[in-house]
């Protein structure tokens, strides 16, 4: 822990370096793409070959997963010819971790040489057009905890990672979203692929009806309890970001409705759609070089 200017940071540059060195000395993989698997979506790492798995508990300075549906393993390997690293399980603010810990892996990815971060999550649908099982390409986000000062970049800025005042108006790569839309057409997924704005709340409770109505008025298409801190830190350190949100439930906006959302239902829907998500992510990974080469994807 180091303190500067009265604000506490729980992770020092030395911590990030130690973890990076620990991993680099144990794997020959040098990933350019990192994938964060959301609730019940650990299966996204299933098709990886030459797999090397590190339980979070073994990795210095890494937090451990405490939520069902988050396995708690870092998986290195090759997918569609691309060297990747997958987080099977992420960390959430509501688990009691500081946002510095929640986003710790993102800076490790940066130091490992990763250039593209793919984030996935489960969320509740607020847009009336969304159905359970839809996959939402994240176009933008609202950092609700950030408005209240729960922000991963609060505290002394480490210029080795990025600038003090990063721009977030282009947080989600337009090129990757376009590529994903093309892929959804090719795979004939268009009847369940959407685009929208994701809003992060801290959780752990699901929203009240008044809160849900407020979020809808604010322009949120879906609501979840993660992703935004990771994306913010990734943009800060110059990673290209792509995000997919699986709509696992419709958020209740009506006092007369009897349905009650629960985590088991979230995991059930994640399981049901995981293969489609996997197909989209794998195809996207297979084609990321087209963007680097500036080629048209069609
Ligand atoms: O890690 P994600 O954002 O996919 O997890 C969602 C939000 C909560 O952690 C949990 C609620 O069921 O799923
Ligand atoms: O309805 C929801 N609200 C918040 N987080 C969620 N994660 C899955 N569904 C939801």
CATH class, named Alpha Beta
Tally of helical runs: 8
Annotated CATH architecture = 3-Layer(aba) Sandwich
SS strand fraction: 15-25%
The hetero compounds bound to this protein are: the ligand O=P(O)(O)O[C@@H]1C[C@H](O)[C@@H](CO)O1, hypoxanthine
Number of domains: 1
Describe the largest sheet: 5 strands, mixed, barrel
Spatial arrangement of strands, main beta sheet:
7-10-9-8-11
State the helical fraction.
Answer: 25-40%
Overview of this protein structure:
The protein has a single domain (2-292), classed as Nucleoside phosphorylase domain (Rossmann fold, 3-Layer(aba) Sandwich), CATH 3.40.50.1580. Helix content is 30%, strand content 24%. It has eight helices and eleven strands. The strands form two sheets. The chain has a five-stranded mixed β-barrel with strand order 7-10-9-8-11. A hairpin with a 2-residue loop joins β5 (73-79) and β6 (82-88). α5 (174-186) crosses α8. The radius of gyration is 18 Å and the shape is globular. It starts with a strand and ends in a 6-residue tail after the last helix. Residues 38-39, 67, 90, 92, 121-122, 203, 224-226, 263, 266 line the site of the ligand O=P(O)(O)O[C@@H]1C[C@H](O)[C@@H](CO)O1.
Which helices and strands appear, and what pairs or packs with what?
Elements (H helix, E strand, L loop, with lengths): L1 E3 L2 E3 L3 H12 L8 E5 L11 E7 L17 E7 L2 E7 L10 H4 L1 H9 L3 E10 L9 E9 H4 L26 H13 L6 E8 L8 H9 L4 E3 L3 H9 L3 E11 L12 H30 L6
Parallel strand pairs: 3-6, 3-7, 7-11, 8-9, 9-10
Antiparallel strand pairs: 1-2, 4-5, 5-6, 7-10, 8-11
Bound molecules: the ligand O=P(O)(O)O[C@@H]1C[C@H](O)[C@@H](CO)O1 and hypoxanthine (HPA).
